[in-house]
Amino acid sequence: MKKIITTTFFFHLLSFTLQAQVAIGKENVSNNSVSLEFGDSENRGLVLPYIEDASKISENGTIIYDTSDFKVKYLKKGNWVDLSVNENGDEDLTIQGIGKIEQTTAKVAVGQNGDSDTKEGILVLTDTNRSMVLPKVESPHLNIINPSAGMIVYDTKARQLAVYNGTVWTFWKP
């Protein structure tokens, strides 16, 4: 019964739009330049959407976990850029395909024009003058005990982006 209520709530949540700044795991966002911000008191990350066929995605800036080759990627100028680097990603995808029906209209839009935004995606940040602050974790490769494939965080110790492809962490620094 708990699973049914949780699933129903989740799909209901995905069917509406938000028009404000959102803080997850904390009371408020840190400043007016943030659309979406995650709390940093727990060793948890953001798991990206699992995509089987990325060929239909055209919105530059989209970040995904590509299940065809087990890599975290983002779309830049129409081309997918690999953030995983390691060739040996892995994930058990069986839980996604057993009796699951994709809700193609599921979307949460966060931002000032969330009601009218037409971009496709599960979570769309619509503001043009605000950003998303990733979950912050010190040394995620040491402190996130059981990471999920497609996880992304900001490593506060090394001050860099960290992505997990199901096997290894990859770190990106400007």
Q: In words, what does this structure look like?
A:
The chain is α/β, with parallel strands linked by helices and about 170 residues long. It has one domain (about 1-170). Helices cover about 10% and strands about 30% of the residues. Strands 3, 11, 12, 13 and 14 form a five-stranded mixed beta sheet that branches. It has a four-stranded mixed beta sheet with strand order 4-5-6-7, with no helix packed on it. A three-stranded parallel beta sheet has the order 1-2-10, with no helix packed on it. The longest helix is centred in the first third of the chain and has 13 residues, at about 1-15. Mean pLDDT is about 80; it is low at about 1-20.
Parts with pLDDT < 50 across at least 5 consecutive residues:
1-19
N-to-C order of helices and strands: HEEEEEEEHEEEEHEEE
Task: Classify the secondary structure makeup into a structural class.
Answer: alpha/beta
SS element count, helices: 3
Signal peptide: 1-20
Keywords: Signal
